Structure prediction request, 484 residues.
Amino acid sequence: MVFNSFPFINFFAVVAPLIILLHRHVKARNIVLLAASYYFYGSWDWRFLGLIASSTLLDYTVSLKLDSPSAPTHIKPARSARDHALLLTSLVFNLGLLAVFKYFNFFTDSLVSLLQLSGISVHARTFNIILPVGISFYTFQTLSYTVDVYLGRIRAEQSLLTYATYLSMFPQLVAGPIERASNLLPQLNQPTTIDLERIWRGFYLMSWGLFKKVVIADNMATIVDTAFATPAANGTVYLLGIYAFAIQIYGDFSGYTDIARGTAKVIGFEFPLNFRQPYLSLNPSEFWRRWHISLSTWLRDYLYIPLGGNRHGEIRTYVNLMITMVLGGLWHGAAWTFVCWGVFHGAILAIHRILRRPLEFLGRRFQQAPYLWLAVRWLAFFHLTCLGWLLFRAESMAQVQEMLTSIFTQPSFDIEPLPKSNLLGLAASIAILVPLEIAQERTQDECVVLELPVVVRALIYAAGFLALICFGNLGGREFVYFQF
Prediction:
């Protein structure tokens, strides 16, 4: 069951009124929410329910045993060997699930290839393993909870019902945002606030997210699929395919997040912002403060800082950045292209850190033309981002090499393989996204359209509805991040 499908519309039309009706009755509301979430997740494959239930029971039990009710939350409690073993049990179990379902075949094939390069012939068995949707997201969510209890940052949740609802809440279960217990558990433990303004803003976010997915992202997917599936195409075809993928993945993933956050808002919950106009970024550090914020902050808090962050000198900082980004790349998928994507982002983060002073010096040289300097920085970094998206989308490093070679050596005005109507859609997508992104950035209001005069809003709604009917892909195409 995906957000952009009629089954979900029917599902939400039944579930939302029930949750709203029970918003003052915490236990009854959570029972309905948990049942709806398990039904939602089980609609892909009922066998997946055993995995999330196992993680729920294990980490609920471990956290209760780790809880230190007498210790203040701002002081890390003293931990015994038993506590270390309990935390290790949670880490091994949850990361073990990821290793088996997501990485077993990848690491097996990689080891076989390495041994064959060394002259050792082996034949290892791989398995046809189904990747459970959302496993990377809820695994990180439950791990952060257990670690926070272990470090004394939060108290363990006493109610199994509340904890199970926290881990499986359907709006963000499959593709985030990756929730923190400190944000969502307090909301689940008290009555929710329901008012017409919140519901209206929630439906606006859902509508805008649906528009980004089925009108913008899915139309860009046609260009992307054609460009990446055309062997020996000219450089312009490949370049347009990369630009289209930049729009597709943003429209697709931020669209999912908008629908998830809007859905939660309608039923009385607040999820954190996950995207903040990332393509307005001027450098890699800013990009990761704007793109997939719940993942980047998770990697910062539970990987980069525990590794030492920037506290042990420049060299160690660069090493920590690289380790964090490589593992972040591998989190996205079990393929060397994702590893290389992580290496690429780790490298540009390190290079940007090294070049801070030269860039500041150049900025002072452009004092008489500050907008020109902004444009140069934006254009340069946007194309670095697109280079990263090539690594992210390509099937292999050989394809990356082929496409880059063609882009730099075979430019052409012939774009015949690409559907012309979708190229017009690329231009229209940019024309729609850019002004709205700038308006949202300037006002810091994701629902800025709701503040426009009523006549302007009516025209925007009419145009959006017409585009949805004429150009929307209402076939329930899956979201890109479901595969992660």
